[in-house]
Structure formats: C-alpha cells, structure tokens
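Journal club prep — side note

Before the paper discussion, L.F. wants everyone to see what a predicted structure for a comparable chain looks like in token form. Sequence:
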Amino acid sequence: MIDDFFKSKRTWSKYKDFILGYYLEPYIPKVARLKRPILIVDCFAGCGRFDDGEPGSPLIIAPIIKKWRDKGVNVRGEFIEALPGNFQRLKDALFDSSDFATALFGNFEDHLDELAEKAKQNTVFLYVDPYTVKGLVFERMNSVYEQIRKSSASVELLLNLNVATFMRWALAAFKRHDQLPEEATNSDADYQADDPMESIEMSTLDAIAGGDYWRPIAGDATRSFLEKIGAFTTEYRKLLASSFTFAASCEIKSKYEHQVPKYVLIYGTRHPDGIEIMNDAMGKARLDSLGSQFRKGTLFDLTPNEEMPDHGALAEDLIAIVEEQGSPSRKELRNRAIWRHFGRFQTADINAAIGELLKNGVLFSSTGKSRINDGVQLSCVPFDDGPAQ
C-alpha cells in the first residue's frame, strides 16, 4: 500500500527508469534545435529517493538536465507531489539541483494553468508515473494534454498505466473473478498503492479509461485476461492519439516467463522522430532485461529463440512496405517498419537491413547507391527503368 511504496525500488521499476533516462538523453538536444526553452515535468514525483537509497524519477531526470545545461541547453525541470511528507523529502532530494529543478506542491492538475502558460514559450515533456491507477482520471489528464498541445509546438508524454489492476477491477465489476489467471492474483502481482481487490464503481472505471469502451472488452467471455489487457491498451492509445498524433506502448514484466505485465508504458508524441527515439529506448531496455536474465553469469546465451531479433521477417516487411508505398524515402520506410515491430529493432538495425537489401539488388535507391541517407527514395524496381510504381 501507499505507506510502503517508497520502501524499495522494484526490479521492474528499474526497467522503466532505464527507458526514461535513455529517452531523455537524445530528446533534449533534439528539441533544443527548436530554439525554445525545454521544460520537463514529473507529474507524480514522489519522494525523489527510495528508502533503500535508489533514485526515483526526479534523481534520474535532474542529472540529465544538468548535463545538458552544462553544455548550454536551456532546460529545466518541475517536479510535482501532492503528499506533504513526500513533498518535503522531494525538496531535500532536489536541494543540490535547485537552480534548475523546482519542487511544486499539489496535484499536477492544480498547476494546469501555470503549465499551459509556460508551454507557450517552452517545449514540454510530461512524465506521468502515479502510484495509484485512480490518480489517472482521463478527462483531467486530457485537459492537461490539450491545453499544453494548443500552447506548445512540441509536447510529449510518457505514461505509466497499470492495466492489470484496472482489468482486475473491471472483471470484478462484471462478477467475472473466475477469469483471472493465477499470475494476476499472487502476492507479487501488484506494485502500485491501489488495492486490486477493492470494489470500484463502473462510473469510476469509465473516468479512468476516458469512456465506457472497456466494458465490452471486460465483459467478453471469449477473450482471455491477456487479450483483454491488450485490447484495452489499444483503445487507450487511440484516445491519446487524438492529442498526440502518435501513440505507442510497451509492456513491462519483471521476468520473461511472466505473461501478465506489471504495467504498460504508453508514449505520445506529435513527431515521428520521437517514435524512433522511444522505439530505440524501449528496445534497448528490453534487450538489457533479457540479457540480465539469460546471459549474465552464463557461459552460453540462453535467450529464447522467439525473443531473438528475426531479421528475415524484418527484411520481408521492408520489401512489402516499399511495394505498398511505391517509392518511400528511407526515413518513411524505417518509420513504418518501427510501427510494425515497435521496440524489437533499433534504428541502426533497420538501416542496416535496408542497406543489405540494396547491396543484394532486392531494393533500389534513387541515387543508384547502397549507402544512402534518410531522404533518398527506394523502390522494388530500378529507377532507371522508369518511375517507381
């Protein structure tokens, strides 16, 4: 429960923190090209540091901000916390970073007007990692997204959503407790401060989800628990896409063999470059997680075959995309491939696969070369033979 939440950092939280840090490193210099100040907002900042000494999100974000400020980038952070005890600890944790990191007391929607005003002059990154699912009332959240979206040329979101707890509540509302797999009910199933056994009104679930679309999903007896989680996540992403244009997600599990995710990280952006950076971040975190479980301390790589990158399938999809699109640029082709294999292949992997297809004469470039840049068009037939179809 909430009193124990900051006692120690869970293994799967380190996965999430890796993604946050990995993403912010290239994000800050990229958006700095917009020549506007950058504001990173941690909307549920917590204490700053866990009782076991592990850094929380504020102490992951602050050193990255300092690194880029030292290089001349105009970037700062704001860290919002509503619980008085947590807030005091947060201020203490950020004391050495007070020149560029501000602790703000209250719920993040309390600061909506202020954030919307700042967004007129700043590019904005929102990190939304609540320790209760009930803290994510969609309309309140969406009012933040929309007001900032209307004010800022650039706004991005990384949201932590405990879909398993939500679906447990949803099934309980439909009296379908029998559809819960054992993994979703054991003592290690939950990491947030919510009580998954609590009885939640359907209207409250509507408010969290941003509509009643979850009801037919939860009530469908033909779908498994995992299928329901997947369908709910897909619909939630669609809602976010109305504010962010692009929305993608990544399931976070504590161990490979687990089926039920601890949570889903959902990313929203208005720029395709953002999707590439987050794809690389989530993919790198996934590979590191697999490596720690299947390669660390072992003589052989024990990673399951189904988790190894399938470069043959990637090549087939690249060819199919070019056939569908006619003559996309390398960047357009890569972006579509990322959507089909989100978090599975790094940008460099996709570029390398395109290069191999060019070298082998399977694809052709408008320059006639196999070493190309992102703006070069590609086709399944030589460009000298006429316009690509």
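L.F.'s comment for the group: Residues 293-304 have pLDDT under 50 and may be disordered. Keep this in mind when we get to the figures.
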